[in-house]
Design a protein that fits this description.
- Strand 2 and strand 3 form a beta hairpin.
- The mean pLDDT is 90.
- Strands 1-2-3 form a 3-stranded mixed beta sheet.
- The protein is α+β, with helices and mostly antiparallel strands.
- 42% of the residues lie in helices and 20% in strands.
- The protein is built from 4 helices and 3 strands, in the order E-H-H-E-E-H-H.
- The radius of gyration is 24 Å and the shape is flat.
- The chain has a domain of 38 residues: 3-Layer(aba) Sandwich (YefM-like fold).
Length: 84
């Protein structure tokens, strides 16, 4: 069930609202009696066990950090000259 709260309640009682979101509550925020938005808790992401992550990257290529950094720098270095 969604609980309706005013914009003022959201501003003045944001700590209480955040704790309620942590508990799974949902809110409809109103301004002058008109619904303007919804607040809902974010669903937790899937938990992946450490060993599964290690297995997934076990055969990944080794990254040369210096070369990787140089590639990034080449890609984003646009110089300081004006374009126009």
């Amino acid at each position: 069930m969604r609980r309706s709260i005013t914009q003022r309640e959201l501003r003045n009682e944001s700590g209480d609202v955040m704790r309620a979101l942590d508990r799974g509550e949902h809110f409809v925020v109103t301004r002058n009696g008109v619904p303007v938005g919804e607040l809902s808790p974010v669903a937790p992401g899937p938990f992946v066990e450490r060993d599964a992550v290690l297995r997934a990257f076990m055969n990944a290529p080794i990254v040369d950090q210096g070369r990787f950094r140089a590639d990034l720098d080449d890609g984003v270095d646009q110089g300081s000259e004006p374009r126009a």
